[in-house]
Design a protein that fits this description.
With 254 residues, this protein is of the alpha/beta class. Helix content is 35%, strand content 25%. It has nine helices and ten strands. Strands 6-7-8-3-9-10 form a six-stranded mixed β-sheet, with helices on both faces. A hairpin with a 2-residue loop joins strand 4 and strand 5. Helix 5 packs parallel to helix 6. The relative contact order is 0.17. The structure holds adenosine-5'-diphosphate and magnesium ion. The site of adenosine-5'-diphosphate has 10 residues, from helix 1.
Length: 254
Amino acid sequence: MAANTIITVKNLTKKYGDFEAVKGISFEVFEGEIFGLLGPNGAGKSTTLEIIETLREKTSGEVNVDGIDLDKKPDEIKKIIGVQLQTSGYYPGLKLTELIDLFGGLYNETVDPLKLLDTVNLRDKAKAKYKELSGGQKQRFSIATTLINHPKIIFLDEPTTGLDPQARRNLWDLIKDIRSKGTTVIITTHYMDEAEVLCDRVAIIDSGKIIALDTPDKLIDKLVETGFERPKEVKKANLEDVFINLTGHVLRED
Ligand code: ADP
Ligand code: MG
């Protein structure tokens, strides 16, 4: 597979005062993939993401997005990326369609609100207010807002944190769907299972450093090659599977 690089990060560092949150990381994101930054709380995932999104200043290093140098033309980067807007709090009383019109105006884009809501399976909530949505619906709506400006790349920062298993799986399907339409996705998560099923490649980040970067399959294969074995025979299903099977993640809307 000949992959085109769409994001290049070289020796990126970020200091908050004396504390170095990002310690010289380098990676590439390929066009059309779901790339995951996987790591525990405080690893530096959001900092890294927000620097690429032009929302935070870096301390040093180079960032290039679709051929655009972050230091030279940050505004050009903004035009081709989709960032989750923090909709909560601001206009909780507006209907979803009204919020989309509002965001469309901010981006100078004419949007068909119902069509956009369709892409995230929320058409039946068009007249609902943001505050009336469930956690999973709020996340789906927030992902819809990233698509308003027809971006080449969308950035999702822990989109499934706090969601129940069904809502998480719905969101995974949605994110894969967005990727299948040609949009590159960069996502952060601290859920290992999520990275394994969702991401084409993951960078494992810990204390501001990338300690591994590959496809989930290859990372697992490499570990197995060292002779690693799981201590116990693993069951073919887990309690989450039982739950999903009983409640049905496809039929029931979260
Ligand atoms: P993650 O998203 O992986 O949880 P963050 O990028 O949010 O990690 O944070 C990385 C580290 O930087 C943490 O130790 C955090 O406390 C610190 N940090 C993040 N933002 C700030 C800030 N604005 N000022 C000072 N320290 C910060
Ligand atoms: Mg974070």
